[in-house]
Amino acid sequence: MNLHDELAAVLRALPDIPAADRAVMERAGRELAASGLAERALRTGDTAPGFSLPTPAGDTVTLDALLSAGPLVLTFYRGAWCPYCNVALRALQHHHADITARGAQLAAISPQIPDESLTLTEQHALAFPVLSDLGCDTAEQFGISFDLPDDLAAVYESFGFDLQRVNGGHARTLPLPATYVIDRDATIRWSFLDTDYTTRAEPSDILAALDALPSAH
Question: Given CA atoms 71, 77, 81, 82 in this order, what sign does their dihedral have?
């Protein structure tokens, strides 16, 4: 089963959402798609901005340090409260050995506090760094951060998503789910982003992008 099919299965398994809440979610999705955010974000050919972000263990990881060890697969996700993010991260973990076999690194970034990242890492036995981008400052540099509209934030709160706590006081700001393949010179060689949070980069496409890197030949 590919990731697309796994994500579709998640959607089918979710409990029914009240019609009023679903209408809010669908309208917010249409507005985000029409905002032009995805078109303005960094894409293939752009230079990845530097960052310095904490790990759950209290260490600091920089883009330069990651790239010093090889090309980087960098994925942004919304948080452990998002079932689609969890499926996508598990899929990346499943292909982690395939990524490292190509001499590349893998790292994930979310707006959640380090304690939440630690819980996520332990629950899914993730073997790659999960970094905390409080306030989505790094996501903003990539051009993929946005603020939830008030009514959608209220819907998420009614679902029990305590974004105020898990995002360290930045409850409204999230990143678009996005994945980048970044070469050692910080050039983005491949990118995937979508305003539809139920859609994610296929691991097979990520591996193909790594195989196509100039340094791979």
Answer: negative
Quote the CA–CA distance of 139 and 51 in Å, as a whole number. Answer: 10
Per-residue confidence in pLDDT tens, the chain, 217 aa: 688 888 877 777 778 889 999 999 999 999 999 999 999 999 999 999 999 999 988 899 999 999 999 999 999 999 989 989 989 999 999 999 999 999 999 999 999 998 887 777 887 788 899 999 999 999 999 999 999 999 999 999 999 999 999 999 998 999 999 999 999 999 999 999 999 999 999 999 999 999 999 865 4
Domains of the chain: 3-216 (3.40.30.10)
Cβ neighbours, 10 Å, residue 49: 14
